[in-house]
Amino acid sequence: MENDSEHLKVAVRVRPLLEIDKTTDSIISIPSSTEIQIVDSEHFIKSAYDRVFDPSSTQSQIFDFVSPALNQALKGFNCTIFAYGQTGTGKTFTMFGQHESLQSSEFMPSLSPSSGLIPSSVQHLYQSSKEKSLTFYCSFIQIYNEHLYDLLQDPKRGKVLSIRESKLYGIFVEGLAEFVAESTDDCFVLINRGNENRAVRQTRFNHHSSRSHTIFQMSIESDKANKKGLIKKAKLNFCDLAGSEKYDKENNMIRDHVKELTQINKSLSALGKVIHALGTGSSRHIPYRDSKLTRLLQDSLGVNTRTILIATVSPVPNFVEETISTLKFADRAKQVMVKIKRNEISATNNQLILKLQKEIQHLKTLLNLKRKGGMQELEQKIWVLTEENQKLKNIGFTVEEVERLKVENKKLRIELQQMGTYGNTDGFYYTNTDEEIPKSTSPFTSETSKGSRVGSSKPSETRRSNPNSLPPKASSKIELTSKAKGFCDLCNCDFPCIHSAPSPFKTPKDFKSIEKSSSSPFRKTPIYRSAESTFGGFSTPNGKSPEPRRMNVRYRMTNCVVEDTGVTDKLKEVENRKKEMRNIQARLNKITELENYRKEQFKKEIKALEENRKREEEDTRRKMIEDKKKKMDILEKKKVVEEFKRNKKINEEIEQLKAKVEMREAEDKRRRENEMKKQKLAEYYSRKKQQNEFEGGNYSDDFD
Ligand SMILES: Nc1ncnc2c1ncn2[C@@H]1O[C@H](COP(=O)(O)OP(=O)(O)OP(=O)(O)O)[C@@H](O)[C@H]1O
């Protein structure tokens, strides 16, 4: 199965009846593990899929269905898993697990039976890759109202990210953080964090309805080349799509809800069109660019990616139309053929080397900057590295050298992480926890961390203590230009804001200390959230104080400048404060402008909706009139036909009567002729008789 074509795999999961459904009737029956039937007074539909999961199916059965694809991902095959369905049918339940368990605060190193596909897959991947030297990079994206946000770095949806395409990276999200997750726990923390930040809303059919599409991405890269000198890499996408929903005319929906609903339905319809185009195979143009979702998944949909669709449906009779529409979508998806090949890249491939060099260059720059400080040196270093990079590009590399580059890359990241750097240069960020964090308040104690790590490639201690690390104050001298100006890159908010958190692994106490030290007018707002909550049955310890998780992160971002803002004297501080205030004012103006713009947009949308409605009403009225006219025409025609039939019948009767009359007349004529003949004969015989008598002869009546 090195290079193969296969159908997109489709499973349907029927969720059980819930209290919120307020019914015990179900329209769904499952004759076999691959068939589903919808039966009610108006429908009888039967269709077959790769697998149908009945309402009693467990999370582990779903995991078993996808696990072969996960194993393939470890061998270098891309994989995308979707959950698609109407709102409240169990997409998030399937992908992440029971919602309540997301909130639990008990730490359980193992997964619970209610854990969803993503946590189970993460655990499986780490367990299966114990012996292999693989690196996992994780990112978490949400698409809300057709805008992309980084769920791990941007909880307030402050910065809209853009999708870019380049030869080096393919399709990628500019500025999206990719964390190096060294263990299952690292991943779990990231998933929890992302889940906390996801846009949800209470709707009629779901108390925690997801209002955004989320994509948890894992890039798996082998650290070492195989015997053939090839390096494996695979991308895994877990997509929990927002659920489609009908416009609720009776209960006035609020403005934001209407907007969300419009955007969700629009992007799902774009996804449907892409699936349709891929399924028919005839269409040359695949409309990937119609929505952010399809554009982002362009290289993971139908192209070199094993794709699994889990369509979730409700058994409630009221949602029969939605269930049928989901099954239709799943039917179309079944037709899609995907050509799959292993993603292997020669270790000496120019692009890979270039990428590694680029990363190493940034890492080195940051490290030197961290160690020595100073803008001049940084500029010098960048210049030297650029030169070096240029030279390196022209030199042939051996596999061993590339492997060394990879190892160096990883080492540098870890070193940076341990130094507590939060920096940014051309292309990459590296975040870290602060050395000042009191160990007792972190959500990850060393014992817990040690005990719970599954498949961690490194003991957690190695990432904690660092003899080279600078004292915390020194590290705080290095800041981003935008921060020096009092702006955050992500949300343009006053600084320090939520994005100044070194990593998603802050602890409540850390946040308090930040709040205290900050003089920002926003500092009273508890902007940081701890990674305490869990999902799928894993969480933070009760009362225990784990150690901060340290992780590396790379950002795909360009043209960021680093400068020395280690300002300690009072004057500059005052100056900075003023600047900060000016920036806040500017930001407020911007927000007001934005608000006005949004209002304007909303008015336009309402107007458009109103016009649409009017147009639809007009269409309906016109159609009704046309229908009426048609009916009248038909009635008119019917009348004519009946008249014609009646006339025809009358004519036939007349004809019959005429025929009868003619017959009678002929009969009369014949009778008259016979009588005349008889009369003539009688006259003849009487005359003959008279003649015989006269002649004296005998008269005989015999005549021939
Ligand atoms: N298979 C299942 N077993 C038990 N409960 C389920 C199952 N599927 C869904 N549920 C419950 O149904 C409710 C809605 O599920 P969920 O939030 O996953 O739906 P969703 O499809 O993601 O909805 P939305 O699109 O609105 O986000 C939740 O309370 C969830 O616990």
Automatic annotation (TrEMBL):
Residues 663-681 have a biased composition (Basic and acidic residues). ATP binds at residues 85-92. Residues 439-476, 663-704 are annotated as: Disordered. GO terms for molecular function: ATP binding; microtubule binding; microtubule motor activity. The keyword Methyltransferase does not apply. It comes from the Eukaryota. InterPro entries: Kinesin-like_fam (IPR027640), Kinesin_motor_CS (IPR019821), Kinesin_motor_dom (IPR001752), Kinesin_motor_dom_sf (IPR036961), P-loop_NTPase (IPR027417). Residues 7-336 form the Kinesin motor domain. Keywords: ATP-binding, Coiled coil, Cytoplasm, Microtubule, Motor protein, Nucleotide-binding. It is found in: Cytoplasm. One of its GO terms (biological process) is spindle elongation. Coiled coil: none annotated. Residues 439-459 have a biased composition (Polar residues). One of its GO terms (cellular component) is microtubule associated complex. Belongs to the TRAFAC class myosin-kinesin ATPase superfamily. Kinesin family. This is Kinesin-like protein.
